[in-house]
Amino acid sequence: MTTDTITDFADFGFAEPLARALVTKGYTVPTPIQAQGIPPVMAGHDLLGIAQTGTGKTAAFALPILNKLAENPRARFKLATRVLVLAPTRELVSQIAASFQAYGRNMRLTVCTVFGGVPIPRQERTIAPGVDIVVATPGRLLDLINRGSLDLARVETLVLDEADQMMDLGFIHDLRRIVGMLPHARQTLFFSATMPKAIEELASRYLKNPVQVAVKPSATTAERVDQAVIQVGQGEKAALLQLVLASETVDRALVFTRTKHGADRVVRQLSIAGMRAEAIHGNKSQPQRERALAAFRAGAIRILVATDIAARGLDIPGVSHVINYELPNVPEQYVHRIGRTARAGREGMAIAFVAPDERGLLRDIERTTRQKINQIALPLNFRAAVDEAKERERNAPPAPREPVREQRREQRRGNGGGGGGGGGGGSYGARNSATPGTARVRPQGARPFEGGRPAQDGRPQNNRPQSARPQNSRPQEGRPAQGQGRPQGGERRQFRGSRP
Predict the structure, then answer these.
(1) Does residue 423 or residue 42 have the better pLDDT?
(2) Cα–Cα distance measured from residue 175 to residue 86, given in angstroms and rounded to the nearest whole number
(3) Phi and psi of 334, rounded to 5°?
(4) How many Å apart are CA 107 and CA 110, to the nearest integer?
(5) Can you tell me the distance from the alpha carbon of 447 to that of 345, in angstroms, rounded to the nearest whole number?
C-alpha cells in the first residue's frame, strides 16, 4: 500500500470494530499526516512525525495503535500496560485519552489517564488490574512507578507527543528515566511541531530506522490564519483589548499572556469593563481548569485568557480570534498559539499587541516564520477608550487577595508551575515555570514588618542588624534554644512572620 492511494479511511483496512467507529464519527478523507503516517505505523515501523496541532495528528497514531490491539488481543497483566502515550499537559492527556475512547468505542479496551492535580490513589486503583492504554504526563507517571503502582516492562508501543514542548518544560530527564524502563523491542512514535537540533538528537536516540513524515516545514504558521500586529504602549493594552473584543466579528477569543498573574489581571480588567472571561493557568486547580474549558467550548463564555499551557494540543472548536496580549519569549510558541484558531477548515484571525519593549520578540517571530506580519493602526476611538478604562480601574474596588491557606492548598495539588500537571504532588511547578527550576526566595535576614511596624511598647521591631544577632540563638518552633531560659525583661521572642 502506498500513501498515494490513500484517499479514504476505508483504504487503510482497519479492523471491523475500528472501521465501524470511524463511520459513526463521519470520517471519510484522511488528512496528510494521517495518509502518510498510518501505513508505516501499521507496518510496524517507528515514526518521526513533524506536524502542528490541528492536523489530525492524534488519529494518525491512535488509529493504527487501536488496530494493532484489535488484531492482537492479549490478557491484561496486573500493574502493566501495552501502550504508553506521553504528553506535556493535563489537558492534552485528557484529549488524547478521549480520542482513544471514541475510536475504540466498539472494542473492549481500557484507557487510563495519569496526571497531577487529582488523588494518586484513584489512578492506582484504575491501573492495578492492568490497562491497555496509559496516557500520562511524565512527572505523575514517575510518581506511580516510584510507588510500585505501574510496571513498564510490557509496553509494546511508546508515543511521545508534543516532544518539543516537553523539552521546553524541562521534561528531558524524566523522559530518559522512563524510556530506560521500557523494553528494547518496542515500536516508538515521536511527534513534534518543530524540529530543532535538540529534538533531532532525542529522536535519533529513541527511534530505530524511523519513517519520517513532515506535513509542513518547521515553524510555519497556519495557512488560514489572518495575522496582524498593533503597536501599543504596555499600559494601554487593556483598553485596546476591550475595544477589539467588543467588535461584532469576535465570536470566541483566546487571549494569551506570558504569566499566570498577568492572565488573572486581564480577567479582572475585563470584568471591570463588563466582559465575562475565565483564566486557565498552573495556579488553577484541575477542576477549575476543566470547568473553564468546558464553559468556553460550550459558548457559555466567549473569552478565555491563558498562559502557554493552552497553546499546545488543545482542540477548541469555534475560536474566531487569538489575541497575543503579550508576545511569547520563544518564537515557535507564537506558531502554536495562533494554531488555536482556523481549525477544521475555518478561517481565523490572530492579533498581536506589541509594546516598544517587545519589538525584538516580534522580529524573532518574523524571522522564524519567514514572513512579515501586517501592521494595522489603532482604532479611531482608542484614546477615549484608554481614558475610560483607566477611570473604571480607579473606581473599581481593590482586587480580592487569595488567602495564603488557599494558595498553599493549590500548591499541594501540584499546580504551582502553570503547566500540565506532570509533576504530581507539586513537583511540576518549577518544571513548567517561565524559568524552569527557579523559586521565589526571600533574601537572607529579611523579616516581615522589618523596621516599619512599632511594637506594643512603641519601640520599632526587628531593627537589630542581622550581623549583631548571636549565632545559634534564635528559638526554634516557638521554644527557647537549647541551654537558654525564657526571655527576661525587655527581650522579645522572635517568630518568623508573626505580628507583635
Answers:
(1) 42
(2) 9
(3) -60, -40
(4) 9
(5) 57
Per-residue pLDDT reduced to its tens digit, 187-245: 999 998 878 788 888 899 999 999 999 886 445 555 678 999 999 999 999 999 999 99
pTM: 0.64
Residue with the three cell numbers 487577595: 401
* CA-to-CA dists, residue 439 to 238, 271, 434, angstroms: 29, 30, 11
* Alpha helices, DSSP H, located in 147-259: 163-168, 172-180, 197-206, 237-245
Helices (H), 396-469: 404-412
- The contacts of residue 168 (CB under 8 Å, 6+ apart) are 330
Which grid cell sits at 487?
A: 526571655
Contact 215, 47 (CB under 8 A): no
Instruction: Report DSSP letters for 116-161, one per residue.
Output: TTS-HHHHHHHHTT-EEEEEE-HHHHHHHHHTT--B-TT--EEEE-
Task: Give ∠ CA 85-90-94 in degrees, rounded to 5.
Answer: 65
CB 230 within 8 A of CB 354: yes
Nearest in space to 255 (alpha carbons), one of 324, 182, 187: 324
Question: Exposure pattern of 210-242 as b/e (b: 16+ CB <10 Å)?
Answer: bbbbebbebbebbeebebebbbbeeebbbbbbb
Classified as helix, coil or strand, 187 is strand
- 268: enclosing H helix or E strand: helix 260-272
Per the document, the length of the chain is 500
Amino acid letter, residue 269: Q
Q: Is 186 exposed, middle or buried (0-12, 13-18, 19+ CB in 10 A)?
A: middle
Please give the grid coordinates belonging to residue 314. 488543545
